[in-house]
Amino acid sequence: MKASRGIVYLVLCGHAVLTLFPFAWVLSNSFRDSDAILTSMRLWPEHFSTRNFANLLEATNIPRAFANSVSITAVSLALLLATAVPLAFAIARFRFKFAEYVYIFFALAVLVPGVSVLPMTFRLFNDLGLLGTKFGICLVYATEQLPVSVFLLVSFMRAIPHELDEAALIDGCGIADLFLRVIVPLSRNGIVTVVILAFVAIWNDYLTALVLLPDQENRTLSVALAYAKDEYRVDYGMMSAAIVFAITPMLVLYFVLKDRITTGMAAGAVKG
Amino acid sequence: MGTLRFRPAVLLCMLPAFVLYGLFFVVPFARTVFNSLYEWNGMDEGVFVGLANYTELARDALFRTGFLRVGLWAALAVVLKVGAALLLANLLRDKLRFGRFFEGAFFVPVVISSAAISLLFTLLYDPDIGPLNVMLRTVGLGSLTRAWLGNTDTALLAVIAVPIWHTIGYFFVILLAAMRNIPRELYEAARIDGAGARVTFTHITVPLLVPVLQVCCVLAITAALKSFDYVFLMTRGGPGTATEVPVTTMYKTIFVNLQLGYGTAMATVIFLVALLATLIVRRVARA
Lengths: 272, 287
What we know:
By secondary structure, chain A is an all-alpha fold. Helix content of chain A is 79%, strand content 1%.
């Protein structure tokens, strides 16, 4: 028993090192300059130089891209909630013949890889004059997240006792009151889960932003980071700093919301 | 289904979602399928060619080989990603000292964008500064060092390793949650009957996880088919065409070569293959 426990920890530690080593390495390099990085591999810098980061903040468009990612993600989430929550409310709380079909209709998109629709979304953007705008992409992000969000919200809303609806309506509540004062507050947990899942997906997107945001000043963080790869090909320190800059906000968020993120993503996978 | 009587306000609730989904999913999807029947450069009038794009695709060696590469990718993803996640989850099923630390650590890469991960691995694979080569040199195996992403022999496997590394934690969390939902009494009964860890794993854990494992396999396979970022950001499909996969070929066909008809036919095939793979996995798991 003792020996097998030792093996268990050996496997776990091995995988933890494999998982965390790349982050430690790039973090260390982000404080070093290219010459030092070329000379030796270190997980702890000789001395901490913040020159790479200062350079990143002053001389690149990465801070701007960060701000773009923040505003684009926020607008997309607002749009997603404004469309998904009322739809889920309709499907989960009302009795009508085509509810099932509505559900299936929205399920179709889950089967279609986003990649294969994107070129024609690009054409559509062109036709609608959305290409070159900063927030047009939010319509696409909200659409991409709609199916999974609706599934999750419907399953949360179905768990709310149906007697509440009747009681609220008898008490003179309108449908709008029932929705805003009863159902939405009671589905708070579901809504938070949906927001977290959608946030991670939208914030981390690369391809959609690459295609639909051709203007340099509208680039999101992922896209700006990818361009940085070509610009700083030979400057390992700058590359490392750019990577660290891009991953730190998500790491912080993860440490704050660890349980919500992991349970949310597990639930999203199985239900979606 | 709910219990409330239907009324016009319900339509109002559904309207915004229908408009959004109709305009930004249904329309582009329909246009994708429709355009795949045309020869079209995106500017001039398209010419209806029927299924000619598809018959041409069937002869397109680059596109076909792309599917073979993605097939290898999917197979490795199922074996290594789902397999490793299953083993790790099994080790952490019972509460263990430092268990929470390992759970937290394994999931870390999942929240990071594939763009950032791809750049990170471009550095990790770097012939000069990459730890892989540095370690090989340190232990005297300098002859094995190479430009992992720049070498035709290693580029594909080097690329495939990245998404596997990136999302093991995702499958780990899904499987761990499912394992902890298995009633404890089953394990206790097995223990009383004298079953060891291995027998419990193969006779209780795995059979009860089949539905979740099925979901994991579908996710791993479709993710391989859909993945664009890793390949595009690490190798652009190169060296030569060594890491070219269907989605990168489609991207170049449409956005670089401006063959919209041919490219949308590729998009449609990718969609159909993803659908087919999903159905097959479901069928196999049921049998």
